[in-house]
What does this fold into?
Amino acid sequence: MVTWTVKAPAEAGSNTLTLTVSGRDYRSNIALTNQVRALNVTTQPPTRFTLTPRIIFPAGLSNKVSSESPMRLALYIDHREETAPQVAGEAATIRLNVPARFLDGSEPLIKSGSDSLVWNLAAPAVSQDTLFDVQFSVTALPKDANSGLEATTEFMNVYFPIWVVRKARLEVLAQVQGRSGTTPIPVRIGNEFDLFSILSNLGSADYYGSYQVQLRLPSGYTSADGLTVSTESDTVKWRVKAPDVFRETPDTLMVKLLSAPRDYFSKTPADIAQDSAIVLISPEAGFMVAKSFPVRTGSVGLRGGASLPMLGLSLQNKDQSIGSRSLLDTIKVSFRNKRGSAVAARSVVSRIAAVRHGNPAEVLAENNSPGAASEMVLNFDKAVPDTIRGSDLFAIDILIDIAAEANLTDFVMVVDSARAIVARDAIYHNRLSIADSTLNRVQYLGFSSGTLVVMQNNLEESFCNYPNPFGTASRPTTRFVYYLKQASDVRIKIFTLTGDLVQAWEYTRAAHPRQTSAGVHQDEVIWDGRNGRGEKVMNGVYLAYLQTDYSEMALTKIAVVK
It folds into this structure.
């Protein structure tokens, strides 16, 4: 027997080995016929395995698990089909290198198997999401059935990073229109409001599946919605009707979490940080926010002038009810002189009216009977029912007709007290409280039109300046006021008491239409207290003359005080 040791080629494939036997006859020394034999040999790549780590429990995870949850980590040992077979019955031996926090002390780290190896672990508790490195180290692999050599794998150490994230940790919140906590929320008696249950997640892992939440109502509160709700949504809404009576103390409404959804990674019920929440509701008359806004275009009004805007008011329901309906009954305005003393209404106006803001043709209330008292009342009985609905903004302009015989040179219209505005609930007719822009109930409003200067409808009596005196830091300039019965060129000159010219302006109709048009003028001509050379004038009294081209002239005195 003859034996040859042959090395297979590096490339896999089929090859033919030829064996030729030749010899001679021992006695005759005659060559014998050669014997040729062909042997077909197929070569294969050496046995090779692919090692794949995977989390197999909970199912469906990649490399994230929730803290403090059980897990199973598998290493799949896959024989690559294009390589040589392994020796039957032999197994791979793998060592798991994992942080001790994943172990309970009973799980062996070194395991042997042919197809897959599984380790039972538990994710550690973490205060923040943490990345852990896990390593599988190959100790032994099955042998190559052809060569008898140990099989190979791409990596003898396989790394598998595992993120341990904070488990879903839920708290239930209760809100009414975005408000919650222990501060009572005002709700108009007999009205409806929306109460929300909100599920908030304090952990990192998501949650999934259905959970159950329940609304618990005190006596007198009702809801057409089911009080116990099963849902997968983060938010549940109930529409609740408040009782029909006032309560001296707030009522407590509770939202209770009856069952929890599941943590996405551990597939177990999410942890519960807070299973109930409350809101405090104060059934009360309700309140309305009142604000003022400017509507005047100037500070001068002509005696006998009609429909002059004085003060803008807006009203808006501001309790937490749904679909609040309110009626505006009356608004009381008062008139005062510039020193703040009350004056008879009939001494300054002949009529007041309230019109819808932006639509002066829509008169909502009117009073044509001013009296000796300083107050006048606007009655909105004829206004549309349910004047103010829901959170709509109701805005009005208060107009006046200046009395033709007005005997004051200036006055102010005010809405001082919150009692001056009377509004009621449209259903129960209880009077509503009035609040300011900070949503605080108030007794004092202090709405003022600002001073209106009353001027005559002729040039001589209308020509004046304001402020007067002027020249201080708070009053650096003064403005001339005058009335032109028809368009005219205008010339204004300022003199000292000794007749020296200080300053002069001349306006022509062609070049200066604002200063020369017919009507009231109050902001077109301003003097800064300087002479024609740009120098500040001295303290004292100065004379201002205005002349038109239809031979009218007017005079006024100006006081400069620094």
Q: What stands out?
A: Residues 46 and 147 are 8 Å apart (CA to CA). The chain has four domains: 48-165, 169-284, 287-454, 457-560.
